[in-house]
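Case study 2.
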Amino acid sequence: MGYVYYIDESGNTGTNWLDATQPLLVHGGWLVPKNNVEGVRKELVSLFQLTQATVLKSKNVMNSKSKNKMIKMLFETMRRNGAVPFLTVSIKRFMISAKIVETFFDHQYNPNVNAKLTHPIELKKALAVCIYENDTYSIINKFSLLIQNRTASIADLRGISESLITLFDSRNHFLVARSLKNLSDDNFLEMIDEFETSEKNELALLMPGIFKLLTCVEIFSAKNRSPVDVYHDQLWGYSNIFELLRTTFLNKKILPINVGTNEKPILSGFEYIKSLEMKKDEDDVLLQLSDLLCGYAAKIFKNIYENNPLDAQEKEVLIQLLEWNSYVYEKSKATALDYHGTYSFEASFVKAAFPDKNIKRVNCDNIIRKEFLSVVVHV
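Prediction:
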């Protein structure tokens, strides 16, 4: 059969991960059966008739008096044609916490922990949540500046390390705190090298977001052996990122393997994703629809993030996104709606859609107490 996947984003602020006006990054779009692509294009003519805009960009539709009718028609059209939305939503501030964990608990830089933390185990997320929820020391703000400036000093990193020690001690995670003590200048220099040798766009959130989306689409399409062509909205200054993804992960002669875990897969390559190209969205209405999807989803997700109520249509769209996610997971164990945030943020999505549903609370402190001993080398 085959698919075409159209990707756009909402909330990209480059390496400025703490832009207060855009706390979330939503990335993704519509996966459309290739046989239905032209049919979808023809059906979308009626959507254009509801607006005077020449393109179906999010900002145009959101300002239209016919917004609700257009959104309803869009989702009905895409569902009728077998399309599936694949999205990631990231709290940027949380992603800085995750980057802090990857930096200070990487065994290449920190000799007190083993290589287990290089895998996407739940402990890594629990550590990031703990930092995010208990940062009264400006750790996240300080680390964000290092990302933005692409440079750091030994004093910068030692100061952040000392603040992390204080934070984990305050949560009674004494073993975690001890694993950060006695790091040498050489350890910090190795961390600094990551900042100074990375291209600026490599430190943005888009690359890990694209990789995660491609991973989910690969797993889903592999279930029925369907090849996928991918088009991403044109991003100026990111050509090297797309070339790196193509040469590293596409069209590999050796079958890819999962180097992550069953729950959080990381693939060594993509067997079914056959192409990855950038394209101007004004040249393709299906890219415009992905822009619209990301923009509208971002509005919903920001309301959830800020504890604002959803209106009836926003709630209905959220329910549909959760239903699509369940469908994809049942078919392939992949996710069509992937969250990068705290445990409470994930739970808030389900609660916003189904207020009466009982949701099990996940405690990051319990996970850290149970699992951190397994990653310690010596402290």
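The chain has a mean pLDDT of 90.
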